[in-house]
Amino acid sequence: MVTARFWRENPSRYNLTAVRCGSCGRILFPPRSICPVCHRKSLGKMKEIKLRGEGEVLTFSVVHDAPSQLDKIKPYVIAIIQMDEGVRLTGQVIDCDPSDVKIGMKVRSTMRKLGEDGQAGVIYYGYKFAPV
Ligand SMILES: [Zn+2]
């Protein structure tokens, strides 16, 4: 069901759309209709916001053993990014050498091709992160 989940969340992946809970102020990405902290109190109070797309590397790992479709880009870096708004996103860090990636490094999201479904001919896009 990974694919279904991907497509359901796809609009927010394109736009970095999150929601802010009107009750506790927590920001959630991908957007949800109910805050996991406030539950019923948050009903109807979730307000859509757009993440600015900037943050810093919280932690990362360099992937040397990639699935075959990612063979030509390895080694590559997958990082958890602490966005300026406080939410954490996981994504690939690009446009730099894996050895240049450091904890605390400032990055900005950028829209890139994530992959393609060869049989369906579908190419899908999402965010990756590049050094600022
Ligand atoms: Zn809340």
- The string of secondary-structure elements, in order, is HHEEEEEEEE
**Which CATH C-level class of the domain at 52-131 is it?**
Mainly Beta
Ligands: zinc ion
Q: How would the global form be characterised?
A: globular
Sheet with the most strands: spatial strand order: 6-5-4-7-8
Query: How much of the polypeptide forms β-strand, as a percent range?
Result: 35-45%
The number of helices is 2
**Second-tier CATH architecture of the domain at 52-131:** Beta Barrel
Mean pLDDT: 87
Unreliable segments of 5+ consecutive residues: none
Query: Rg to the nearest angstrom?
Result: 16 Å
Description:
By secondary structure, the chain is mainly beta. It has a domain at 52-131: OB fold (Dihydrolipoamide Acetyltransferase, E2P) (Beta Barrel), CATH 2.40.50.840. The protein has two helices and eight strands, in the order ααββββββββ. Strands 6-5-4-7-8 form a five-stranded antiparallel sheet. A hairpin with a 4-residue loop joins strand 5 and strand 6. It is globular, with a radius of gyration of 16 Å. The termini are far apart. Zinc ion binds at residues 21, 23-24, 26, 35, 37-38, 42.
Question: Can you give me a brief rundown of this structure?
Answer:
This protein is mainly beta and 132 residues long. 10% of the residues lie in helices and 44% in strands.
Compile the SSE list and pairings.
Elements: H1 2-8, H2 10-15, E1 17-21, E2 27-28, E3 46-50, E4 54-63, E5 76-83, E6 88-93, E7 106-117, E8 122-131
Antiparallel strand pairs: 1-2, 1-3, 4-5, 4-7, 5-6, 7-8
The structure holds zinc ion.
Residues 21, 23-24, 26, 35, 37-38, 42 line the site of zinc ion (ZN).
